């Protein structure tokens, strides 16, 4: 890459010069923004009814999140929880994420289960709702919680999706080829300018030919 452009060669051997598009960059959150976001989320939590835990069902398992306290999964039969597994108790928060550790020991890894709760903005959800639960690693989970109240936090406002930038390429010419191209372009422009005159001359020739034919036919 040289400056704001680079050159590539097609499979047919044609060389092209391409312009590097301007890429919009998103700013990384600063420490002060992170602290502000954490406090803002805590303020939103205070407006929620923390006595009501969030419940989310996914087939066999149900998930229960008591914000800032604990999260668990359980299987329910006829209104009674038969199997309950702790996915962690609240340990810390950072930005728009809470961490829950020291859950029930995992029979695969032998380590306590842990969960990361991420908060997202959803203007169509007036009340806090669990969107989904994903086991990203064995016995390690990510829970997404959304609510319209969270949209009041600037860091959680949805950002416009970045659209792909177009890569503009054109054939790369040598100085000699470029001079030829310029001459051909000038010749072409001259041809364009003389077209009306040439068209009229052609029409006149056709009319003359018709008149000559009529005269010879009468004779």
UniProtKB/TrEMBL annotation:
* Record's keyword terms, sorted: Disulfide bond, Endoplasmic reticulum, Signal
The MRH domain extends over 51-153
Name the PROSITE patterns for this protein: MRH
Q: Where in the cell is it found?
A: Endoplasmic reticulum
Classification via InterPro entries: Man6P_isomerase_rcpt-bd_dom_sf, MRH_dom, OS-9-like, OS9-like_dom
GO terms of biological process kind: endoplasmic reticulum unfolded protein response; retrograde protein transport, ER to cytosol
Tell me the SUPFAM superfamilies matching this sequence: Mannose 6-phosphate receptor domain (SSF50911)
Q: Which GO terms describe its cellular component?
A: endoplasmic reticulum lumen
**Signal peptide as annotated in the record:** none
Q: Which Gene3D superfamilies does UniProt cross-reference here?
A: Mannose-6-phosphate receptor binding domain
Q: Which Pfam families match?
A: PRKCSH (PF07915)
Q: What is this protein called?
A: MRH domain-containing protein
State the organism of origin: Mesocestoides corti (Flatworm)
Species lineage: Eukaryota, Metazoa, Spiralia, Lophotrochozoa, Platyhelminthes
């Amino acid at each position: 890459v040289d400056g704001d452009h680079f050159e590539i060669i097609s499979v047919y051997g044609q060389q092209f010069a391409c312009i590097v598009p301007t890429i919009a960059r998103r700013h990384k959150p600063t420490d002060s923004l992170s602290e502000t976001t954490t406090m803002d989320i805590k303020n939103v939590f205070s407006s929620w009814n923390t006595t009501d835990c969030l419940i989310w069902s996914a087939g066999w398992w149900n998930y229960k999140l008591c914000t800032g306290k604990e999260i668990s999964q359980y299987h329910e039969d006829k209104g009674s929880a038969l199997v309950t597994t702790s996915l962690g108790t609240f340990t810390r928060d950072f930005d728009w994420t809470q961490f829950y550790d020291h859950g029930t020991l995992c029979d695969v890894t032998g380590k306590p289960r842990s969960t990361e709760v991420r908060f997202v903005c959803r203007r169509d959800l007036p009340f806090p709702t669990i969107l989904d639960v994903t086991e990203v690693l064995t016995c390690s989970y990510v829970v997404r919680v959304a609510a319209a109240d969270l949209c009041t936090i600037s860091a959680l406002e949805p950002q416009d999706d970045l659209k792909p930038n177009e890569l503009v390429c054109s054939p790369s010419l040598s100085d000699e080829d470029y001079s030829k191209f310029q001459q051909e372009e000038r010749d072409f422009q001259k041809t364009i300018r003389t077209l009306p005159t040439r068209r009229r001359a052609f029409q006149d020739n056709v009319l003359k030919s018709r008149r000559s034919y009529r005269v010879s036919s009468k004779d």
